[in-house]
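Exam prep: given the inputs below (a chain plus zinc ion), describe the expected output before reading on.
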Amino acid sequence: MFPTDPISNLAALIRCPSVTPAEGGALTALAAMLEPLGFKIDRVVAKEAGTPDIDNLYARIGGDGPHLMFAGHTDVVPVGDEAAWSHPPFSAEIADGEMYGRGAVDMKGGIACFVAAVARHVEKHGPPQGSISFLITGDEEGPAINGTVKLLEWAAAKGEHWDACLVGEPTNPDQLGDMIKIGRRGSLSGRITVNGVQGHAAYPHLADNPVRGILQLTQALMDPPFDGGTENFQPSNLEVTTIDVGNAAVNVIPARASAAFNIRFNDSWTAESLKAEIVARLDRAAAEGALRPGRAPVQYDIAWSERPSHVFLTRNNALIDSLSAAVEAVTGRQPQLSTTGGTSDARFIKDYCPVVEFGLVGKTMHMVDERVALADLETLTGIYETFIARWFGHAAA
Ligand SMILES: [Zn+2]
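Solution:
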């Protein structure tokens, strides 16, 4: 039987406790849905020293012609306080028209709907005029090392290439049809450490207080703004996320102070140009020494977090127009094309093909009582099915 019902698809997925890094049976359940449709399924286990092995899945149906990829993840975040849930988090219980469960919206729901949409398409029209593939990882909510990155490399190495990708993460803030994501801001983090000289608070001339230096440097990071935003992006924004001195004594000047920061940046920067700007700001502030009259420049070190996320913007009319038109046809609402929010695995896929994101309403993701309206599952399936038909129509034209 074809898996045309998103509600039963989702129930089967929610009942698999696939908290990262556990597969929990979720990929096996997904494979069982895709096999009857004629998908060729590969299970790919990715390994790396120091990280848990991760189960991933790649499935493809069809042959030559345009190739559409659907990407997502079956892993979920922990349930938190299980006793606080109104319905057990892996039960898929339905109450008042909503299905409860961890992953209901982020993002087993999106997968359940895309499976149903493909099943309906194949039922009506037979195999696609080209190919449809599922690239599903079990490592999106974790370190994301053995997930999408390695699965893409594995598939590309065996000759797979794609013309477009839809990521089914929850993108709508309030209701279905609000928002399609057509890009994402970049993200860069670092930590600065100011080294001073420890001493007695009553004899500051014998010491060098690093708290003065760290205040000056963090101030220079936060002000002035990095830019005023661009056509498709919000202004870049830096937040100092912690300042650490760890000094328990009020009469001791500490030896060291450090601070961490994260910046979400738009397409007027690259990670490299932004690092240069940050270092220039820190050097200027270190030399100024307004809080340190008569002192030498602040001595500081900076350590960058290992992997910045790069900013990207998708410009592909066949993909964006097909999806927008599908959303409008089914919901009567014109979705906003947005680049807001955090990073997602789209940042890896963009190196292989144009990518956009559209999924469920994200309100309850990662929360206790994560849940999805059954009506939304049907609507999203309709949107995905319409999108598939339009995209292949567009790509074949
Ligand atoms: Zn997600």
